[in-house]
Every structure is written in C-alpha cells, then in structure tokens.
Amino acid sequence: MRHVSQSDRPLRIAVVGTGIGGLSAAWLLSQRHEVTVFEAEARIGGHCHTVEAGQAAVDTGFIVYNERTYPNLTALFSHLDVPTKASDMSFAVSMDDGVLEYSGTNLVGLFAQGSNLASPRFWSMLRDVVRFYREAPASVRDLDPSASLDDYLNSAGFGTAFREDHLYPMAAAIWSTPALEIGNYPAVSFVRFCENHGLLKFFRRPIWRTVEGGSRAYVEKLIAPFRHRIRTSAPVTAIRRVNGAVEISTPGAEPEWFDHVVIAAHADQALALLTDRSERENDLLGAFCYGLNETVLHSDETLMPRRRRVWSSWNYLAQSARDGSKRRKPCVTYWMNRLQGVTADRALFVTLSPLHAPAEETVVWRGVYQHPLFNAATLAAQKELWSLQGQSNTWFCGSYFGSGFHEDAIQAGLAVGESLGGTTRPWTVAGESDRIFRTLQQV
C-alpha cells in the first residue's frame, strides 16, 4: 500500500487543509519529508474549533468520540497524552414548540409531557423503536446495498411516528443533516453504522468522551513538530500537475512547486482546485455534495425544549411547515454544560440551523460548517476513491472517505501518510482502516 520514492531524498509535499485528515497526514509525513501546509482560514483545525465563552472553552464542531468506534483517534490521544473525560449523550426531541416533547434518558424524560401517556402516536413510536432496535441489524443483511432507508422502513411496515419523531431526528442530530435527507441513506450502511456505534442498544452503550480544555488542546499537541510549516490565511486557488510535479497557487505569491500534494478539503472543494482534473476525478469527487449548517454558540433558552425536565445533551427541535404538510425544518441544540462538562455561570448552547435567531445579547460566536450528504451514489463512489491516490502525484483525504466523522478523516489521513511517505503510525489497532475503502494500487 505504500508509494516508495525513487530516491532517498525527502519529498517536498504540500498539504491543503488543516482538518484532522490533513493534520494527521502532515504529522506522519513530516517525520520523514518536507511538508508545507496551506490553510485558508486564520486558524488551524477545521471542525476542531474551540471558542472562549468567558472562562469556558466550548467546542463548536468536533465535540465527542468513543474509544470503541474511534480507535485511531483514541490511539492518537494516548500517544500525545491528551487528557479526556466522560461525556453525557442524552437525546431529546421537541416538535412544534413543545406540542410533542420527550427525552430518552429515563421514564421521567419519556413522559415528562403527561399527554404522552395517552397518545396512540407516542406508543406507536415506542413499539417501533423496540422493534427496529431488535430486528434491523439482521433484517437489512438481505437487502440490496443500494436500497434506501426509506425503502427498508416502507417494506418492513415502520410507522410515520417512529420516523418523524425518533429515527430521523436522531440521525439528523448525528449527521448534522436535514431529517428529510436521512431516508435517502443506504439502509445497510445506516443500520451498520448505528449498530457499530451502539445506537441500537438499550443498555451497555459505549461511553462517549470529550477532550479536556476543548479540541484545540489536541490540535496544539498534534501540530507541535511542524507548526512552523503551516501557513494560515493562505487559501490555495489552483493546483496544476505538470511533468511529475505539482504547482500550487495562492493569492499574492508566486506559484510553488512540490513533488506531491495531499488535498485534505471537502470533495467538491478538492475538485474545484484542480485545473487539469481527470475524468475519473470528476466522476468520483463530483459524486459528493455537502449541506451547510449555520452554527451559533449562545445562551438563549428558547432554542431548547420548553420543558426543563426534557433538556438533554442533544436536543432536536422542529416545526411543521406552514403549508400544513409534515415536512419539518430541523435544528439541533447541544447543551454544552452537560455534553462537554463545561462549567460556566450560565447555560451554553451550540445550535445548528436555529429555528429562529437567538437573542443577540446571548450570542458568543457564529459560524458555518459543511457536512457531507450520503446516498447510494456517494457510497458507490467511496469504494473507488482510493484508486485516485497518487495519480498525477495527487492524494486525497477527508471524512467523506467514510461516514463523515473524525475517525473517518483520520483513517484517510493516516493511510495517505503511510502510502505516500513510507512511514507507519506509531500504534496498532484493530480495524485501523475499516471505515474507508483502502485498496492496493500501483503508482
């Protein structure tokens, strides 16, 4: 799986992007090669973005992980001696300004809204929750891999209440994706992901953890060996491959030449940078699209469930569309005091796609994050992505190689670092690349 240099000299390698994919690749490559990292933003870290809220350090992008399904991230934290602590992963749903509310923490949360006890729709949802958790892992094994989650739910007879009031809200909160998009996700991949992450268990779920002091604490340790090689506020505008070399263009500077480039940007951004993209690059990278999430760090309690007893770490809120249909605009509010163990003199929330603007005096920070959207076409493209690696001295990595999360990005970044740089990660874990489709190819 490794690209072996024809000479003993260190390679000059450009890495574009400082998300975890780019940083993990640069970290591994810098141990043997001359690496230059380009970052468009003034800060380093991509979705690792810790914001100061008074005396509290609050993460607004990457927040939590678990040791079972994030083996490389866990190993990296151990290797860098990054302190972490246990998190709370409770989940709540609030529909139509509290017309329906519940949390899955315990019976008190389930029936915090007394009318749930007498609601046929609510009991229908609970029955389907139990049935889905018990049956889905086995029943999807015989499905066509291209069958969507909606296809499976329809064929298995799962009700509207289960979809609208539980499954799609939960998935939308996890993937930061509009609930109505979740039904397009391939059923086999969706259920496998949920099963692997312990989401289909009522008991003994994995313990989720968060980084002490925010994700910036691990980024600082990771970049320490090559910090002087990182250029911030240096957006790459074009990448051109000529005669076995790579030309990198940035504003206000002469183009620079490198032996190889690692593009650690979103798939659509990576494609846009290539001035001489191949047909295969266009087909595979062009299969991916992204959703934009307005993200706000604030303390406005009107973007939480109305009933305080329902408040959870993850809170999904939605409203029915004005035309009376059951299409809902979703938003997710993370209660950071509970989710990240943030100590502050006020409640702090991170809300994605807020239903209404939080009161301006409560706002600490605003930003926008992009997340990949998955369907049968993207899953098919993922299986072929590794065939692009090393072609025209160009390499790619990012969370879109897997399910869109931190472990997917780090697996892709480390695999590129090993394949290109001839180095190996300093740990051994089971399934080190099992969330991406890493294949052997000749370069």
UniProtKB/TrEMBL annotation:
Location of the Amine oxidase domain: 20-271
PANTHER family: AMINE OXIDASE DOMAIN-CONTAINING PROTEIN (PTHR42923:SF17), PROTOPORPHYRINOGEN OXIDASE (PTHR42923)
Protein name per Swiss-Prot or TrEMBL: FAD-dependent oxidoreductase
Pfam families in alphabetical order: Amino_oxidase (PF01593)
InterPro entries, per database record: Amino_oxidase, FAD/NAD-bd_sf, Zeta_carotene_desat/Oxidored
Superkingdom classification of source: Bacteria
Membrane-spanning segments: 12-29
This protein's UniProt keywords: Membrane, Transmembrane, Transmembrane helix
Lineage of source species: Bacteria, Pseudomonadati, Pseudomonadota, Alphaproteobacteria, Hyphomicrobiales
